[in-house]
Amino acid sequence: MLHKVKVPLGMQGSWFGPIVGEPANSHPVYANPLDMGAAVKGYLSVQTASGDVSGDDVELLHFETFVSAQLDAETTYDDLEHNAVVYGHTYANGVETSNKNDVAPDGGYGYFEPVLTKEKKLIYRAVFLYKLSAMQGSEKSEADTRKNDFNPKMNAISYKVTTDNIGDWRDRAEFKSASEAEAWIMAKFGVDQAFQVSVTVTGNGSATPAGTAIVVSGMDFVLQLSNVPAALYDNGTNVTAQISENKYTVSAVDKPHELVAVFTTE
Questions:
Q1: pLDDT computed for residue 9 by the predictor
Q2: DSSP 153
Q3: Which of 22, 45, 84, 93 is in Cβ range 3.0-4.6 Å of 89 for a Cys bridge?
Q4: How far apart are CA 217 and CA 256, in angstroms?
Q5: Phi and psi at residue 186, in whole multiples of 5°?
């Protein structure tokens, strides 16, 4: 017997967008989504309410309804300004201030999962959660002294997922490429236009983020370089002179960009 195979392999991408409006009989309206960093983990568990009808000493009917869900997410980006937005803290002049009266705002959340098929091909399952908020009790800071190894800590946040004004709480769709999955998520946030920025590195150096990213129109893209390369090209133009503190910034992205960093091979 030939069995079907379709197995999620992990999680990629992670975006949170604060809700700025909740129209009646419609999905929420979001601010521009925050890139929460490379995804490490995304566990979603659903809570339901159940009931039953019994008669003649047997259960005649059983039913369950959605109550809420919990998303436990871990990413590689632990940023004070982003943390302040997600948990409702204050961020000003480089300082994040946490107050006892802070309330985490509602927002939307998107990520996608590479899925392996029996034909050994990858498809990309995009997930969008319409309304959730960070659980204050999940905020924590862990730091261990370095001993014989390096043990980095991920940015872990748990979110309470609820329904929006029309009762929806999640959409999922599958695509042939990661860029299509990202574009679909951006559209869910209400972003009308986004552009692809690809990064290629040659030689003895590195750049972050690497690979391909989808950038919302009008937002900046910052490329962090391990050191100043022999040359950096942006859509074929040498922009090495524009590198500052090992960073190159594409301001107000309004078109696709192909970045090529050429490091020495010595």
A1: 83
A2: P
A3: 84
A4: 10
A5: -60, -40
Q: Mean pLDDT throughout 48-77?
A: 90
Q: Across-strand partners of 69?
A: 46, 161
SS percent in the chain: helix, strand, coil, step 5: 10, 50, 40
Q: How many CA atoms lie within 13 A of 219 on its CB side?
A: 20
Distance (Å, whole) CA 13 – CA 183: 12
Residues 6+ apart with CB under 8 A from 225: 205, 206, 207, 232, 243, 246, 247, 248, 261
pTM, two decimal places: 0.72
- Residue 243: which of 235, 253, 233 has the closest Cα? 233
Q: Which runs of consecutive H residues, i.e. helices, occur in 69-160?
A: 80-87
Cβ neighbours of 45 (radius 10 Å): 10
**Gap between the Cα atoms of 167 and 145, Å rounded:** 47
Residue with tokens 């059983």: 62
105 neighbors 18 (Cβ within 8 angstroms)? yes
pLDDT tens-digit series, residues 4-59: 888 888 888 899 999 989 988 899 999 888 989 888 888 999 999 999 999 988 98
Ranges of beta strands (E only) in 25-154 are: 29-30, 34-35, 39-55, 58-75, 90-92, 95-97, 107-117, 122-134
Contact 247, 224 (CB under 8 A): yes
State the residue for tokens 């990213």: 213
Residues 218, 252 contacting (CB under 8 angstroms): yes
State the Cα–Cα distance between residues 163 and 178, nearest whole angstrom: 27
Burial 152-187 (b: 16+ CB within 10 A, else e): eebbbbbbbbbebeeeebbeeeebeebbbbbbbbbe
- List the end-to-end C-alpha distance of the chain, in Å, as a whole number: 55
